[in-house]
Amino acid sequence: MQSVYGEGAGSALFQLLSILEGGEPRGGPAIWRRRLTAWLTTRGTAEIPSHAWPLLDEIWSRRAREIPSQRAADLPRLTSNGRWTDSLSLWRGDITRLQAGAIVNAANSGLTGCYVPFHACVDNAVHTAAGPWMRQSCESIMAERVRPEPVATATVTDGFYLPAKRVLHTVGPIVHASAPSHEDRDALAGCYQACLAAALASSVDSVACCAISTGVFGYPKRAAALVALAAIQGFLAGSGDAPHVILVAFTADDEAVYRSAIGEMLA
Ligand code: ADP
User: Fold this and answer.
1) Distance from the CA of 120 to the center of ligand 1, in angstroms?
2) Which residue, by CA, sits nearest to atom 15 of ligand 1?
3) Residue 214 beta carbon below 6 angstroms from any ligand 1 atom
4) Which domain holds residue 18?
5) Where are the alpha helices (DSSP H) in 6-96?
6) Which ligand 1 atom lies nearest to the CA of residue 254?
7) From the CB of 255, is ligand 1 less than 6 Å away?
8) Exposure b/e, 81-116, CB count within 10 A at least 16 = b
9) Contact 125 CB / ligand 1 (< 6 Å)
């Protein structure tokens, strides 16, 4: 199968790495792909020469065509009995593959993505799939702000080469203690509320939420699921024209946590 980045000497990938690294790349396509990802992850976009951008476009447009995506509109709803959960779906998968009106990215306070190559955070996955245009957009936004992004806000960007139209970047609370405090809980609820309000203001038909703060930021998953569901319930019960909300579970364990939390809320 043809690589999503293109193969061989003379390919867009080969040409791009030659420009970025200043010489003919050694090794083969698998190594080049990793080197490109690492190069882009560790640098600001001002370091990308202008003649590299058309090659980036070529590579990312092929990647977007070849990687399968899931239509949010096709996902089953949790219920169909007139309750708030009629507008809610639970889906297990990679949020960067979801064709939704908007997806939520659990960002850090710098808001320009993760700078650790291959780090398994959702921020890295979102920026990598969207392409460096997203970092560039976030850099422009942050250049106009005088302080780091506070927790519990939502900043909207385009989705660029993601299947999702928009990305809602939010910074969740970092939980230092063994159990989240009231402030942590309010901050996490604030993230969901800010993202859902931003989705409504953006007139998107669907919004997919990753499990904010439950990775590197250390929020216990079950407690976070209950906070997320309460915020979503408040939103869906309170606005008639609310978009379809999708809770994204990344792993089977995460899905089980959500199912049990939903069962508890609906009991
Ligand atoms: P935070 O720093 O806010 O804790 P993380 O990215 O470390 O953010 O983790 C947040 C949640 O996102 C975790 O539950 C993690 O399993 C999940 N996650 C990581 N990658 C993806 C992805 N590609 N799609 C959906 N969820 C993801």
Assistant:
1) 8
2) 215
3) yes
4) 12-66
5) 12-21, 29-42, 53-66
6) 14
7) no
8) eeebbebbbbbeebbbbbbbbbbbbbbbeebbbbbe
9) yes
Q: Are residues 206 and 260 in the same domain?
A: yes
Same domain for 261 and 150: yes
For a substitution probing ligand 1, which of 170, 214, 255 has the most ligand atoms within 8 Å of its CB?
214
**Does 48 contact ligand 1 (Cβ within 6 A)?**
no
Query: In terms of domains, do 242 and 114 share one?
Result: yes
Is the CB of 216 within 6 Å of ligand 1?
A: yes
CA proximity to 100, closest of 247, 252, 250: 247
Tens digit of pLDDT for each residue in 108-149?
999 999 999 999 999 999 999 999 999 999 999 999 998 999
Q: What is the DSSP letter of 85?
A: G
Of 29, 48, 66, the domain-final residue: 66
Same domain, 31 and 99: no
Is the CB of 247 within 6 Å of ligand 1? no
Residue 262 forms part of a structural domain: yes
Residue 207 lies in a domain: yes
| 7 assigned to some structural domain | no
Question: What total number of domains does the chain contain?
Answer: 2
In which residue ranges of the chain is pLDDT below 70?
Answer: 1-7
In this structure, what DSSP letter does residue 51 have?
G
Of 194, 205, 187, the C-alpha closest to 244 is: 205
- Residue 4 placed within a domain: no
pTM tops 0.90, yes or no: yes
pLDDT for position 267: 86
Residues 91 and 207 in one domain: yes
